[in-house]
Amino acid sequence: MVDGKVKSFARNHKHALIFIGGIAAGIIGAKIIKSKTTKNLATKGMAGVISARNDFEETFQDMKEDAEDIVYDANAETKQEIFVEKKID
């Protein structure tokens, strides 16, 4: 009998129950966001992202320097080949 009354109440007042559920979710969400554990997790996550970014920038800079070295060596080799060809002629 109680089960039927609960179902009937839920059917008749579903919008009110959804509204109350939204308020409860908001209160619980605010408590979770303000908790020290959440703050620590967010801090560790941001530290990881910043560390990954720094590692990426360092790797990219190394790749850029290697590419510049290759271009410099290629230009030097090309100039040397031109000089040798002109000398032979």
List the helices and strands and how they pair.
Blueprint: H1 2-12, H2 14-34, H3 36-88
Summarize the structure in words:
It is a single chain. This protein is an all-alpha fold and 89 residues long. Helices cover 96% and strands 0% of the residues. The chain has helices at 2-12, 14-34, 36-88. The protein starts with a helix and ends with a helix. The model has no long low-confidence stretch (mean pLDDT 86).
Task: Report a brief summary of the structure.
The protein contains 3 helices and no strands. The protein is an all-alpha fold and 89 residues long.
Q: How is the main sheet built?
A: none
Average pLDDT, all residues = 86
The radius of gyration is 34 Å
Order of SSEs: HHH
End-to-end Cα distance: 110 Å
Unreliable parts: none
| Oligomer class | single chain
Q: How much helicity do the residues have?
A: over 70%
Q: How many distinct helices?
A: 3
Total number of beta strands: 0
Strand residue percentage: under 5%
Structural class per helix/strand content? mainly alpha
Overall spatial form: rod-shaped
